[in-house]
Queue: 2 jobs
Job 1
Amino acid sequence: MDASVQAPEKASNRQIVGACPHDCPDTCSFVTTVEDGRALRVRGNPAHRPTDGVLCAKVSRYTERTYHPERVLTPLRRTGPKGSGRFEPVGWDEALADIAARLAAIAARDAQAILPYSYAGTMGLVQGESMDRRFFHRLGASLLDRTICSTAGGTALAYTLGGKLGMKVEFFAEARLILIWGSNSIASNLHFWRLAQQARRHGARLVCIDPRRTDTADKCDEHIQLLPGTDAALALALMHELIAHDWLDHDYIERHTLGWPALKERAQLWNPKRAAAVCGVPAQQIRDLARAYGTTRPAAIRLNYGMQRVHGGGNAVRAIACLPALTGAWRHRAGGVLLSSGGHFPVDRATLQRPDLLAGRAPRTINMVQIGDALLHPGGGDFGPRLEALVVYNSNPVAVAPESGKVVQGFAREDLFTVVLEHFMTDTADHADYVLPATTQLEHWDIHAAYGHTDVLLNRPAIEPPGQARSNAAVFRELAARMGFDEPCFADSDEALCGQAYGDAVKWDELLAHGFASLPVPDAPFAEGGFPTPSGRCEFHSAALAAQGQDGLPDHVPNYELPAPGGRYPLAMISPPARNFLNSSFVNVQSLRDMEGEPLLEIHPQDAAARGIASGDVVRVFNDRGSYRVKAEVCTRARPGVVNGLGIWWRKFGLAGTNVNELTSQKLTDLGRGPVFYDCVVEVAAA
Ligand SMILES: Nc1nc2c(c(=O)[nH]1)N[C@H]1C(S)=C(S)[C@@H](COP(=O)(O)OP(=O)(O)OC[C@H]3O[C@@H](n4cnc5c(=O)[nH]c(N)nc54)[C@H](O)[C@@H]3O)O[C@H]1N2
Ligand SMILES: Nc1nc2c(c(=O)[nH]1)N[C@H]1C(S)=C(S)[C@@H](COP(=O)(O)OP(=O)(O)OC[C@H]3O[C@@H](n4cnc5c(=O)[nH]c(N)nc54)[C@H](O)[C@@H]3O)O[C@H]1N2
Ligand code: SF4
Ligand SMILES: [Mo]
């Protein structure tokens, strides 16, 4: 939290209201103080209720990142072998002319050999999903399935509740019981945590459900330290107990749900004893949790994405999302569940992204989780043409994508033409043919949705771009011009794109005046049912899923990789993000890296003793996909049988030039084609 003492303001200083661009549920409003064209500091906007004047430690240091001496300030062209990180500066005109010519030559054969690769380095709708999409749609490039984070849970919510919808975050402060399920809120959802603390001061009980004893788990009243990938079993056992003790809201179930008799039958297969064996927790803990959930009003669940990065992640979210309908928790504004509020935002994506520019073409889709395999595919068969060019922006796939041995091998292909728009020489930028200097949030216009509250935010530029940095939208605008794309939409300015994002659905004047505007969302969205599903009910049973040959009911789907005691890989590994980084962003900011120290593997004293490992030892963590050297920390943050490989370090800061994704797999979740970062078995040995 930013407790820094405020320097006295000069009268000539300007205060510019912007939005935090990072992939974080909190989407804070921030105020930048500018003196003589230089940003002095960024602080939380006290006028924006969800932000409440507070930023996290990372973004409090946004100016340190912006003025970082290693910021890329000119276009760079590769001079050494792929991946060597050797580059020379070139002018924009020369770079853009060459890139346009190279892409045009590939497109003349088959534009599907070109792939954009982007994620949420900025969540801005303009710099993240507007001019870039127009450009690639017009080109006919391969489509990217942007699945690396949230699609298992998002898809599960869509089948169960009808969309990424749920409780309004502010009302968690009024709950009497809060389950913090698969979320290290202190690290990754700080402003929710503040609300949970308010609730607690009024007597609420907080229960954390997480395989790792996180800072959040430490500060809750209870920690249920289950095995990774067993959340659906836990949720089904809770249902079993709700049924057994009749802690049910029969009227709500009758009027607002679908498939109750079938779900009841399913839940009856999951008594606490059976679930306890699967989850690796005491049966009594499950019974107690069921009693608390069944008898406390209002009861709220803050579900987060950590628990859906396993094979059965979709089913687990479906099972948990059924719980509030069983007890009628939705009737109260402080009851229900929240995973994402993203579905409340009326973003006009057709206007921003212009899929009509595909003009009837239907390019293939490549799943970003499987970029390793895609880059190494020789082409042909169902896959289609071999990938010949990649344009990467807002993402650092060499560090964040799973099975990085393959990702690196793919990026190292000398015959692959790679363009990376970046602030810094990341592991991915090191593998580029061209690196193009990008603007940060302090230097460009943007407009935002959020997934942890329901306000739209506008970001105004506070300072001029340093060096020759250009916004992503500007780069794609110029590439479009050089490719001869003359549709009027390619002339829209960044500011005009901000205005198009919501059309008339949000008051532009209000955004310009305050920097944020609240959406009209009812306080208790499902108090009277009204779920936007096909049936209008909370769908315990989904006919749509059954029609696809899937289980229509939620069930426990075991992990792909189960640790086998005495087997080759007896330990499960999870790799949740670090508190002072934002995925792989900020790893190069010295003050934050100092706080994180170095890459660590947390291992339980029992597992460490069995391997002769002490804290501070360098260990080798390995499985069939690769091997990773890291320092061990012997502690009870890890439970027996599970090691925690904290992420997501840049490979080049790792002991042997690798990071934890050397070990993770490219397999996909049951729903939503998502990644399974936390469904991974390993062995650990003293190095
Ligand atoms: N400081 C910080 N904040 C962040 C990020 C960051 O890197 N750093 N990343 C941002 C992004 S992109 C996202 S998606 C979110 C991620 O934040 P969350 O959605 O909270 O997800 P994770 O941090 O991946 O995991 C949360 C917790 O789930 C636990 N977990 C792992 N496997 C399981 C399981 O099988 N069951 C259960 N119940 N729990 C499990 C992990 O140990 C972890 O403590 O946070 C965002 N905010
Ligand atoms: N092992 C493991 N791997 C994981 C996860 C995990 O928990 N464990 N988490 C996964 C999750 S949830 C996610 S969301 C992904 C995140 O993966 P990414 O979306 O790739 O996120 P970052 O690592 O933060 O990289 C974003 C990059 O975008 C750049 N950037 C930021 N703003 C701009 C801009 O305006 N323009 C341009 N051109 N560039 C910009 C930043 O400098 C940064 O290098 O990682 C996934 N990988
Ligand atoms: S990363 Fe999250 S908590 Fe930090 S400033 Fe941005 S939105 Fe707020
Ligand atoms: Mo994410």
Job 2
Amino acid sequence: MHRYDATTEVLAEAVMSYSRERMSMGDVPLDAPRTAAELQALVGQTITTQGMGGEKALRLFGDVLAQACITVDHPRYLSFIPCAPTKAATLFDLVVSASSLYAGTWMEGSGAVYAENQALAWLSGLAGLPESAGGVFVPGGTYGNLSALVAARYRARQQRAADLPRRWAIAGTANAHSSIVSACDVMDVDFVGVPVGEDGRLTGTALRETLARAGHDGVFAVVATAGTTNLGIVDDLDSVGAVCAELGLWFHVDGAYGLAGLAAPSVRHRFDGIERADSFVVDPHKWLFAPFDCCALVYRDPALARAAHTQRAGYLDVVTEGDEINPSDYAVGLTRRARGLPFWFSLATHGTQAYTDAVERTLTVARHAAQSVRERPQLELLHEPDLSVVCFRRVGWTPQDYRAWSQQLLAQDKGFVVSTTHAGETCTRLAVVNPETTEADIDLILDSMV
Ligand SMILES: *Cc1c(COP(=O)(O)O)cnc(C)c1O
């Protein structure tokens, strides 16, 4: 199994040609999920004592299994937050796998870590953090948020060693991503909810008032969202950051989706104040055209994060005793794939201007979507888009109407758009992060909401 022999050569040919064909197809269908019973009937048991051979397994994958997975980079996949990798990034994902890299330590992966760090430095520079900032690529925003908040609590424990609170707490809004409440559960800390204004934004004033009123003496960090998942709202980072600085609280910015907008001049001003962040996350697998799974986690003071996260053991002494950068020291997790490399390769290949242009293109299409909603009497925008998420209602529709419409769209291979809820109401949203999505794609979907 481990030698490259004649059978491997045949399989390599098959896998490469499958990959090339899949990537070069002009219009890959959206595809759709199947039930477990259907898959059982079509595929059956695949793992046997003797094995079925790679070609047969690849055929089953291509003919059935892959087609039972929705194509996330389809231009009319507009649900959740899609993933639309550049071809260079996808190709390099193959290279990363073929290269047998370990990117947890400098000792083992210095070349990979060096390149990943340049990609992190680009993001950190866009945010206006000092050159000494740094971090690590983790699997997703969920891990990034948790790791940043663990570092924040570490600092608080250091600072308040003489006067530890009974309970620790994190402040944020109800619009914060579900991963923040999940992080609170994992860390066993309280969540102090701060109300948002009419415009859905967290402000420094509301934060100050809530903290005074809540009287929780264990608040150690504040999470602002730079692009909420549901509506794409960017909190008032500047005033929130100022209050955090005044009160000595860690200021974490969750920009898993939205901080890609730092690269786009037309929305850059919405992130004013990001330079105050103690940490932020942005997922290149969302709006920066990298394949899953890739979240950039950046700290203002990486030494603090390192102190919080470094795992210690006799077998690790050889790497933790030096002062090289070991990516695993900056987040929860030890073994790591060089998951930042596909993103780095694409950035190195195309240059940052191409990223700016691509993000701006999606913003143009999102603005078209908002305008198109405004022009249709049966549709109503729920929020003027800050970024590239457009949330709206179809007047008069019940949750069942949305569901039936969504299912029909997918069944007809027209689009993948699901419903969401906002303020207790079922509605829908279009998340435009794929530069291949056109104005015509949007209109095709809106036209179907009759
Ligand atoms: C998607 C998202 C997350 C979670 O990121 P994953 O990569 O899915 O773990 C966190 N915060 C926001 C604002 C998001 O949009």
